[in-house]
Design brief:
The protein is an alpha+beta fold. The protein has two domains: about 1-55, Winged helix-like DNA-binding domain superfamily/Winged helix DNA-binding domain (Arc Repressor Mutant, subunit A, Orthogonal Bundle); about 60-110. It has six helices and three strands. A hairpin with a 2-residue loop joins strand 2 (about 40-45) and strand 3 (about 50-55). The protein is elongated, with a radius of gyration of 19 Å. The two termini are about 30 Å apart.
């Protein structure tokens, strides 16, 4: 999906070329088909090949993926996810980052989230 969001549109071969550690061509085609069946992509036939493009806005796909990640690995808990991110980070957070996180927490308290 990242490649399609970045490029706007691409055929399976183009997606394969842009993957850092690519699987086989048939695996890329299968994944594109799955993403299309789930309603994330659409395709058109151009010069005898399917050219795919995303139909779900990136921010909506991001939210959906994040919700799935939270449910699958953190029992739906944002707190557990943040704790895991903080404990697994290889680089300590800067003072600016800590301040931004603190403001987000304060804002969430005010909004009752």
């Amino acid at each position: 999906m990242d490649i399609l969001y970045r490029e706007g549109r691409a055929a399976a071969g183009e997606v394969l070329e842009r993957l850092p550690d690519p699987p086989g061509y048939s695996a890329v085609r299968a994944m594109l088909r799955v993403l299309e069946n789930k309603g994330h992509l659409t395709h058109v036939l151009e010069d005898g090949r399917y050219v795919y493009r995303p139909i779900v806005p990136r921010n909506r796909a991001r939210r959906s993926a994040l919700q799935n990640l939270l449910q699958t690995f953190f029992d739906g808990s944002a707190e557990k996810a943040v704790a895991a991110l903080l404990s697994e980070s290889k680089n300590p957070l800067s003072e600016d980052e800590l301040e931004r996180l603190s403001r987000l927490i304060t804002d969430a308290r005010k909004e009752g989230r």
